[in-house]
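How a chain folds remains the central question behind the approach discussed here. The record that follows shows the chain in one-letter code together with its fold in token form:
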Amino acid sequence: MHHSDTTMGSTIFRFHRLLYIQMGLVMALKK
């Protein structure tokens, strides 16, 4: 596994987590 692949994976993981938290906030506000 190359270093660039690891960096890209962690970046995508972080982005998905932020997106997940954002969606959670939207759902909480809609309630």
Summary: Residues 1-31 form one domain. The mean pLDDT is 85.
